[in-house]
Design goal:
Two copies of one chain form a homodimer.
Chain A (H helix, E strand, L loop, with lengths): L5 H19 L6 H8 L3 H7 L3 H21 L7 H17 L2 H16 L6 H24 L1 E3 L3 H22 L2 H16 L2 E3 L6 H14 L6
Antiparallel strand pairs in A: 1-2
Helix pairs in contact in A: 1-2, 1-4, 1-6, 2-3, 4-7, 5-9, 6-7, 7-8, 8-9
The structure holds a DNA duplex (18 and 18 nucleotides).
Amino acid sequence: MSRMPVAERRVQLIEAALRVACRDGIDAATVRAVAAEAGVSLGVVHYCFLDKDELLRAVAAAITEQNVASIRDIAEATDLHGLLESAVTNFWAGIIANRGEQLLGYELTTTSLRHSEMGHVAIDQYEGAWSALEVFLQDIEQGAGIRWIVPYRQLARTIVAVVDGLALAWLVDGDDEVGRAGMLGFARFLETQATPSADSENADGELDVIVRSAVERATLPA
Amino acid sequence: MSRMPVAERRVQLIEAALRVACRDGIDAATVRAVAAEAGVSLGVVHYCFLDKDELLRAVAAAITEQNVASIRDIAEATDLHGLLESAVTNFWAGIIANRGEQLLGYELTTTSLRHSEMGHVAIDQYEGAWSALEVFLQDIEQGAGIRWIVPYRQLARTIVAVVDGLALAWLVDGDDEVGRAGMLGFARFLETQATPSADSENADGELDVIVRSAVERATLPA
DNA sequence: GTCTATAGTTGGATAGAC
DNA sequence: GTCTATCCAACTATAGAC
C-alpha cells in the first residue's frame, strides 16, 4: 500500500468511499470508515483531501459522471418504438442493479441542498443529466428520423422527473415489475411527443407510429 | 414551561423538532437542538421519547399526515379540466410555499431506507400518499362525471412519481415557473386518462374533453 | 416532573515520530 | 509519504439532585 502517487491514491480513496456510501449510506461514509475500507490509515485521507466534504464532492462527481455515461450507452434501433423501448428497459435495468448507488444519489442531492459545503453538487447532478439527455434526444432524431414536438430541454427535464419519481417509489416498495411497467408506459408517452421529420428516409413507417399513438392514447402507468 | 402533561409536551416537542428540521435539515435536528428550540432542558426530551429515533418517527408521521391532508383539500369544480387545473395549481403552491418541509420529506425517506431504526417511515409516507390519491381520484369520478381508464392505484402512483420528480428538480434549481408549467402539462395528460362515465349527467360536455385531448396530444413539460 | 451534571461514544482534524 | 497518538467538539443517554 505504501509509496503511491497522490493522484492515484485519490482515486483509490474515492472508490473506497463510493463502496462504503453505497453499502451503508452517506452517514456511514466517515473518514475513518473510508480509510479502513481502503486499507490506509486515518491521516492518509486528510493528506489527499482537504477535508471530508472535498472527498464527498469527489464521490458525487464520480456518480454523476457514471449516470451521464449510462445515458450515453443506449442500444441502437431502427424505429422509434424499438429504440425507446430498449433504451428505457436498459436504463431501468441499470437502476435496479445498483440500488445502493441510486439511493446514494438522492442522499447526496438532499445533503447538497442543505449544506453549503456541498455547494454545487445537486446542480451538477441535474445539469449533467439534463444535458446528457438533450444530446440523447438529438441523436434519436437523427437515428429514427423524427422531430420532437417540444423543446429538448423541456423533454429532458420531463424524463429526469419521471425517472426520479419511479426510482424513488421503487426504492421504497422494491417492486421491480411495477417500475418497469411504469418506464415502458412512459416510453409510449414519449412516442406521442415525436413527429416524423420532413427529411426522413422512411417517413411512412414513422408516420404510422404517430398515428397509432394518437389513437391508442398513451397509458403512463407506474 | 413547567408542569405539563406528557401528551401535551410530546406535541410541543414534535412541533419544535419539525421547525428545526425544516429550517436546518434532518442532521441538525439533534436532541439538543430540539430541546433548545422548545425551551426545555435536554432531559425532558428523553423523558417524553424513548430515544431520538422515536422523536423523528413522530415528526415523519406528522409530515405524512399533513401531506395526506393537503391532498384532501382540493377545490371543487364542475368540469374535469377546471378541477384538475385548480387541484394541480393549489397542490404546487403548497409545495413551493414549504421548501423546507418538502426537502425534509425526502431526507426522511432516504434516512428511513438506510436505517432500520426508522423502520416503516418511508413506506408509510408513500402508502399514505397513494391511498389518499386513490380516494381523490374516486371523488373526481363522482364530481366530474368521468371514469379513469387505468386502475386507481396505478394512476395514483403515477401522480406521486411525477410530483416527486418535479419537486426534486424544483428543489435543485428553484424555478417556480418551470415547475408550475410541468404540473399544468401533467394535468393535461391526466385528462387523457379519463373517459365520460355512462351515467354522467352532462355527458356531452365531458365527451368534448376526451375528444380534444386525443387530438391535441398532451404535452407533458417540466 | 424537571433540571444539572456527567458518563460514554463517535468522528473530524492535526502534530509529530518514523 | 505514511503511521500512531492525541486533541477537541458534538452527540446520545442516564443518573441523581431538587
